[in-house]
Amino acid sequence: MAMIREVFKHLFKRPVTVKYPFEKTPIAERYRGKHEFYVDRCVGCGLCARECPALAIELVPSDKNVNGRIPVFYLDKCIFCGQCERICPRAAIRLTKFYELASPDRKTLVYSAG
Ligand code: SF4
Ligand code: SF4
User: Fold this and answer.
1) Scanning 27, 78, 85, 114, which has the fewest C-beta atoms within 10 Å of its C-beta?
2) Cβ(52) to ligand 1 under 6 A?
């Protein structure tokens, strides 16, 4: 009897789930998603790679700055802690709210400024 009462109680209530991906729930204000990297600001200091707890950043050779290197981000390893964004002295990294990163191919999760 208690179960039937419970069923009727919920029969006319709105569902608590949404039909993702057709509907999306609002994202928290401080949500940390995919990186945005501003290569023109980067000086190749390497602090982001040194501080990354997940070893998700590698410095690769580049002619974009005087130190001759820029970071590449491995989003399949990233834990989205935001440490690289915080430590960068040039504000060259910003974590966006983009979270739809699922992919069958890990190569698509390598993010670089080229
Ligand atoms: S967000 Fe954290 S885990 Fe991801 S690349 Fe930056 S420092 Fe590394
Ligand atoms: S910490 Fe900032 S300036 Fe230094 S290498 Fe990383 S992105 Fe470039």
Assistant:
1) 114
2) yes
What CATH number does the domain containing 96 carry? 3.30.70.3270
| Residue 77 maps to a domain | yes
**CA distance to 5, 52, 104, per residue, from 73 (Å):** 53, 10, 18
Q: Which ligand is nearest to the CA of 75?
A: 1
Mean pLDDT of 27-42: 97
Return phi, psi of residue 105, to 5°: -120, 110
Query: Would the pTM of this model clear 0.70, i.e. be above it?
Result: yes
Domain membership of residue 18 (yes or no) is no
Structural domains in the chain (count) = 1
Domain that holds residue 88: 28-112
- Determine the pLDDT at residue 9: 83
Domain contains 40: yes
Rounded to a whole number of angstroms, the CA Rg of the chain reads: 21
If one residue of 37, 43, 65 were mutated to test the ligand 2 pocket, choosing by the most ligand atoms within 8 A of its CB, it would be 43
Q: How far, in Å, from the CA of 88 to the mean position of ligand 2?
A: 5
